[in-house]
Fold:
Amino acid sequence: MDKRFVIVAGVLMYLITAYFSFDFFAGRPGGTTSSIIGGKDNLDVQKADADIDFEGPLTEGCPINGEKLTKEHKARWEKRRPLGIMIENHVEARNQSGLSRSDVVYELVAEGGITRFLAIYHCKDARLVGPVRSARVYFIAMLQGYGEFPLYAHVGGANTPGPADALGLINKLGWGTYNDLNQFAIPFPTFYRDYERLPGVATEHTMYTTTSKLWQFAADKRELTNEDDDGKEWDKDFEPWKFQDGKANKGTTTTIAYDFWKGKSSHSVVWKYDPTTNGYLRSHGDQKAHSDKNTNKQLSSKNVIVMFVKESPANDGYEGGSHLLYGVTGKGEALVFHNGEAIDATWRKPDEEDQVRFYDDSGDEIELVRGHVWVSAIPIGNNVDY
Structure:
């Protein structure tokens, strides 16, 4: 028998087997439900991956956002590196899971006025995170500010040749099959589809993961913990933001509202200041409360930051319409909201590897309030009402 025929036949059998295995494990309609969150097998997984919090004095400052947590939290985060997860914001993806457990969120338009989130996790665990979606070059640039080889979880990415080629950039940076956690290269159950969590939506809105599985996969398969495979710690050259404890009722700005694209009201954002927590509650799409599906509680943040950035088309011939580019390196104007006050600011990110920082009119770096940080980057010229 022709050896080439045997090889081709073997490959075809593998692909067919993989396809049906994926259908089984992903819990596709008509298949078993034991592999999706609603099924029996994953009930045990769900318990094991519960949002982990500890009782005790809040004495340890998270290096990412300054939040004070327990020594037990610190013992966990000291053994791992920052993890960025791409979470979509299509109306069919709402409400998302796990955003409330992140340390920082970066929000920019992915395409067609539809925003997407890069959620940064390091100091806390999230039981479920998703729906997970594809990579974009400007999110990669924001993630590059988090030390040596931060983990990047996503499902594929823009790959049309040109300036918006996210998968090409990942390989160029040396991230591919190392700190890059592309679902296409990682087997079940680190990523899995859950058709019951958001019933009746398209398949692309059903990919989920957990922080514990991603950190464990990186440790077991990529030798990436707090150190890389050469023993270098991720934060060797990382410089955290500056932080303050915060003080409620310091200012009088109670409502913040902005659009990403004109006429895209489903992605308009409104934040309401809550003086009892000294934080901001998020609503979107005609002022509907934006909640975390894991908790059914409205999302909140101690700091709301708006960066004004240049938006331009990539002109890469992408058949679905040109990919977008956002100028998130360099410098520009910004607004920083915390303590109930609004601060006219500038943002600076000299190079991709630098963390974006925010400065007041005197040129001093602004001390962010300890706790969650939400950064929305909107096109230059857009208005922010407050």
The helical segments are 3-26, 40-48, 71-77, 137-143, 166-172, 211-222. The CA atoms of residues 170 and 176 lie 6 Å apart. Confidence is low (pLDDT under 50) at residues 1-48. The chain has two domains: 60-222, 243-385.
